[in-house]
Each structure stands twice: as structure tokens, then as C-alpha cells.
């Protein structure tokens, strides 16, 4: 199965940006193929990656439900076979990576069917990729829904505030409470001012027993690209926030290269 790396945390912390940077990092370091999964109903990972979304799992859910209700599934094809066909069509091909987008159902009702499709799709596709990067929705509900069977590494992303650290700690607590199959959990503190982490923030991180992977400075160029609708993976290589994120990935992926099943290609 693919080595799975997931992002978690409260809304507005920069999870999607860091997920996009990770996909780009893996591709540029030839750790391919990569499956990027936007598991947030409010999808925008494609914007970070500069991809156009054609079909989402939410739209598949609507189409299958309506066709099944009206008896309009293709002749000679079961509902399961039709879903499998649509899942294959939902995978968007990029350069060195593919993208699968959760999206949101347009009609009334819960996300149970769409979440089931997401689990089925990641399970089915996992063997075809070396790495899978999952950008989870904000909050904690996605953890209890178990949108994937296992996670090799989860980054809890927080902004530089006590509330953000508290939210990251709740991710850790829920993983332990539900006995989820998450091998390693690390904290990334995003949008850190030039003065760095305050003593109070450092003490909160230590007090919760969170493992700090690194910090990412606040960066005006990211806001500028976002406001102009430019994919963030097109940022110049010397942007401080991008360099900081890559240092975090370098530190972690060195360990993966030595001990994991997918060494870096020469």
C-alpha cells in the first residue's frame, strides 16, 4: 500500500497549502507516483496545485443515487460496477501525481455515501502509488469517520496561537481515544512571526506531549499568490515559508529513505 501522509487541524491553519507543498516536494524529489486526496467537502487543494477539477466524489454520489432511484443505471452494469467506473473517471491526472477530490453532495442528506466512496477509492487505488497525501477537512469529525484505514504519518497543523495548539492536542487525544491506526503524529506550527514561538506556546506544546516537526514563518508572498489566484506551487524557490516546509520534509523523508519501503530514486 502507499505510504500515507495526512494533514489535520482546525480550519484556517494552512493545512491545504502544506499538503500542496508536500505533493510538489514528492514529485520534485522523484518519489512518485503520488495520489493527492482532497478529503474536504470545501475542496481547494486543486487550486494550490493548479489543477482543474472535472468530477468529485460528491457529484458521483448524486449521480449514482439519482440513476439508481430512477432505474437508469447502464444496462448490464451493477451499481457497484458503475461506481467503480465513475471512481476511475474521478482521478485527475497531473505531472507525477494524480488528484482525487471529495467535493460535496449537492442534494440533501449526510456525507456517509460520499465518505464511503472516499474510503473505497483510497483502498482501491493505494497499491498503485508510492505515496498518498490526504488533505483532511477542518475539525475532528473526519477522524471518527475513518476515511482511510491507516496513516503512516499525520501532521497536525496549527497557526501560532494557544487555540491552535489546543486544537492540535485534541487531534492527538482523539487518535488515542478511537485507537486509530496512525503510526506517527507531528505538529507543524504555521504562520509564525519573526520573533518565533513564545514561551507560553512552547510550554503548551510540551505540556500536551506534542512532537514538534518544525515551524513555518508568516509569508506575505503566499497571501499575494492566493489573492491573485496563482497556484502556490509556482512560488519562487527562495520563499521563506516554502524553504521552511521543505526543511521539515527533508528531515522526515531522510528517515523514510533509510527505513521505509520507498527509497528516493537517484
From TrEMBL:
Domain of life: Bacteria
Coiled coil: none
Record GO terms (molecular function): ATP binding; ATP hydrolysis activity
Domain CobQ/CobB/MinD/ParA nucleotide binding: 6-232
Gene3D superfamilies for the chain: P-loop containing nucleotide triphosphate hydrolases (3.40.50.300)
InterPro entries, sorted: CobQ/CobB/MinD/ParA_Nub-bd_dom, CooC, P-loop_NTPase, ParA/MinD_ATPase
Pfam family, one: CbiA
Any one cellular-component term (Gene Ontology): cytoplasmic side of plasma membrane
Entry's Gene Ontology BP terms: negative regulation of cell division
PANTHER family noted in UniProt: CARBON-MONOXIDE DEHYDROGENASE ACCESSORY PROTEIN, SEPTUM SITE-DETERMINING PROTEIN MIND HOMOLOG, CHLOROPLASTIC-RELATED
Protein name, UniProt field: Carbon monoxide dehydrogenase
Organism placement in taxonomy: Bacteria, Bacillati, Bacillota, Clostridia, Thermosediminibacterales
Amino acid at each position: 500500500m502507499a505510504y500515507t501522509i495526512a494533514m489535520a487541524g482546525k480550519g484556517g491553519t494552512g493545512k491545504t497549502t502544506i499538503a500542496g507543498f508536500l505533493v510538489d516536494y514528492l514529485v520534485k524529489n522523484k518519489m512518485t507516483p503520488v495520489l493527492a486526496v482532497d478529503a474536504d467537502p470545501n475542496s481547494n487543494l486543486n487550486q494550490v496545485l493548479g489543477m482543474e477539477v472535472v468530477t468529485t466524489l460528491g457529484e458521483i454520489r448524486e449521480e449514482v443515487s439519482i440513476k439508481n432511484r430512477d432505474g437508469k443505471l447502464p444496462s448490464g452494469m451493477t451499481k457497484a460496477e458503475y461506481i467503480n467506473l465513475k471512481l476511475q473517471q474521478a482521478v485527475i491526472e497531473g505531472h507525477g501525481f494524480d488528484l482525487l477530490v471529495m467535493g460535496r453532495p449537492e442534494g440533501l442528506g449526510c456525507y456517509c455515501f460520499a465518505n464511503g466512496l472516499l474510503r473505497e477509492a483510497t483502498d482501491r487505488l493505494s497499491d498503485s502509488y508510492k505515496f498518498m497525501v490526504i488533505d483532511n477537512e477542518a475539525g475532528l469529525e473526519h477522524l471518527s469517520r475513518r476515511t482511510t484505514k491507516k496513516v503512516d504519518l499525520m501532521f497536525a497543523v496549527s497557526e501560532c496561537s494557544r487555540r491552535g495548539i489546543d486544537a492540535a492536542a485534541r487531534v492527538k487525544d482523539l487518535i488515542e481515544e478511537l485507537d486509530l491506526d496512525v503510526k506517527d503524529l507531528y505538529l507543524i506550527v504555521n504562520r509564525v512571526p519573526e520573533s518565533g514561538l513564545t514561551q507560553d506556546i512552547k510550554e503548551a506544546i510540551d505540556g500536551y506531549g506534542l512532537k514538534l516537526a518544525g515551524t513555518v514563518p508568516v509569508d506575505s508572498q503566499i497571501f499575494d499568490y492566493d489573492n491573485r489566484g496563482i497556484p502556490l506551487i509556482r512560488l519562487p524557490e527562495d520563499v521563506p515559508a516554502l524553504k521552511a516546509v521543505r526543511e521539515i520534509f527533508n528531515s522526515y523523508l531522510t528517515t523514510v529513505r533509510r527505513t521505509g519501503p520507498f527509497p528516493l530514486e537517484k
